[in-house]
Structures
1.
Amino acid sequence: MSSRKRNTPAIISSPRPASFAPPKPPGTRSSHVDGRPTTSTGTYSLDKILAGHGGFSLGNSLLVEENGTTDYSGVLLRYFAAEGAVQGHTVHIVGAGERWQYELPGVVGDAEAAADSSKDVKDNQKMKIAWRYERLGEFGSGDSVSPAPRRIPSEAQDSLSQTAFCHNFDLTKQLSIPTPSLFNCITFSPTVSDNDSGLVSILENLLSKLRKSPKDRIHRIVIPNFLSPLVYSQSFSQPEHIIKFFQGLRAILRQYFDQVCAMISLPLELFPRSSGLVRWMELLSDGVLEMAPFPHSVSMAAGSGRSGAATAQEDQPQGMLKVHRLPVFHERGGGSSGSRTSVDDLAFTVSRRKFVIKPFRLPPMEDGGDDQPGGRNESVSKPTKADLDF
């Protein structure tokens, strides 16, 4: 008996409709590690070291600590806010007032950016001093065999070329704000009746703005000079209020994980890292960076050419950058652990048109002449004829 089934209708599979991914918000792109949305900090070199995702992952906070009385961390936060304003993001400025938004650096034009990039290429070609310096590449390149570069699809290249992910800024220019309504300046009185009412009002203001915001709107929270006596009263620095504020901020970041990111600066001159309060802030933050500017004596030596720059064409670094923590997103460590390149010896350079973070390199040993101080004749004298005779 035949095993063929009779009167069975043929099943014709209809083609599935093509699924189109929703457009990404401006100023964001997917991480090449795990596809999570990321945005730029406004500093290209800082984007490269943030857990290997090529940007600042949304839903996370970054605590920038600074030693001394300088304000390099404020420059970093201004780049972060200016990048958000250019991309059309909502920028929440806490405690600094409306004047702070008018001090953001302006965007460098395409012609000026091309001239700067060509200058950087020429400087990189002049860095080949000795065979040991030729093997030193940019931050992120391995010491042994470098991995093969990933091929980017043509669609991704077209999308990247249409909208810039990270812009160049000029500190001497003022940013022309396209839409003033994108800024939300949260101010409060330094002296309040309830100790933590000011910090609680900050969280309530942020929640109210996020609930009324569209789902595709990106928000950046900027808190410059946190707990500064010029803005915050002494009662604000109580540990129970600070811990409650950081826990509430972290809850907001986790709830709106695809819309919000935060960057906070803290002066270590007033609150050292050895204190328990600062340690709690670091534990409740996803990333922690410490900026240690060079003292004035070292800066004067840098002007004379004796500094951490490898060549005379390079800009002199203003200080060291210590990475205490980077956001970890998966079991592989998010690119922060297991990396073959150390992130311990990093230096930052602030100039008119760039904020660069790169490995700290000692300059090559220059052999001084006979008449120069520090030359060979000061330590070793010339042999005389009597010394050469046996």
2.
Amino acid sequence: KSTDVQAIKPHSDQVLIILGKSDQVIPCEELQEDATESLGTENVKFKILDAGHELPITKSGEIIRYMVDFWNLAQKVC
């Protein structure tokens, strides 16, 4: 049985990118420039947290809150 992707996908063209300010592996400024150039200013939203590359582990609760807020806002727009 296939999953209905539309049912779980936010209804927005925006992308949320969560970055660690002190990430030595994926430099925050570099990724912001590349993503903005590729996706366009209106299509990308950045959240920068005080963390390094370990961001998904050390800030998991915070990341989940930002994702849920972003999805809820995206659904209200449509």
